[in-house]
Amino acid sequence: MKNKLNKSDFRKEIFSNNNRVRKKFNKAFHSEIVRFLDAVFRAYKAYICIHEKCKKDKRRLYFAAFLFNALNNLVSSFHLLISGYVVSSGNLMRHFMESSAMAILLSNKDLDYFERFQQEGNKFPVHKAVEYVSKNVDKLKINPTSWHNFIETGRFYNLSSHASAFALANMFHFSGKGIMVIGADFDSGKLIPYRKEIGGRISAANCLENIIVGIEKGDV
Q: What is the DSSP string of the chain?
């Protein structure tokens, strides 16, 4: 960021298409981006198998909607990440986690979460969905180790939902001394954390595929 900005600088950022930033991400992480595309498309194909069987099954319609929301959250998060909006991207990963957990809860006929969600609507504490799954790992027949890894990933993204030290660090351009960032950015001084962020979303796409396949088999 320059020492002083004028109104046109803000307008330029607001209307920017961020192609310059995305090109830099693609050059630095092309193979990882391809891996993400492959993984998220596999998750989508698994989702289609559930979507095609919805018809008039209300429970299936609801948990399929949450699965699609999780997929959309993940794709949007990746888009924001390689567009240079790391913190905003991380915030959407919390939505991804919650949507995935809600799909698991609503798909189970032995628990009452589907009935509760229908009755409570927007008052249902979706922010506790991951916690609810954790409390019912055995009943949901979820591999405890896999679920533990899933929620550990989610804890990291909490840093993107608050004005944390992590969020503040993203305002500074590490490869340029004294530079602060308004809007999108690619910082060659952050290649290691960028790679970690991208890897986390590849893992999330693989996990979503497993969740969808597990729900379809009735053995999440």
A: --SS--HHHHHHHHT---HHHHHHHHHHHHHHHHHHHHHHHHHHHHHHHHHTT-TT-HHHHHHHHHHHHHHHHHHHHHHHHHTT-HHHHHHHHHHHHHHHHHHHHHH-SSSSHHHHHHHHGGGS-GGGHHHHHHHTTTTTT--HHHHHHHHHHHHHHGGGGTT-HHHHHTTB-TTSTT-B--S----GGGHHHHHHHHHHHHHHHHHHHHHHHHHHHT--
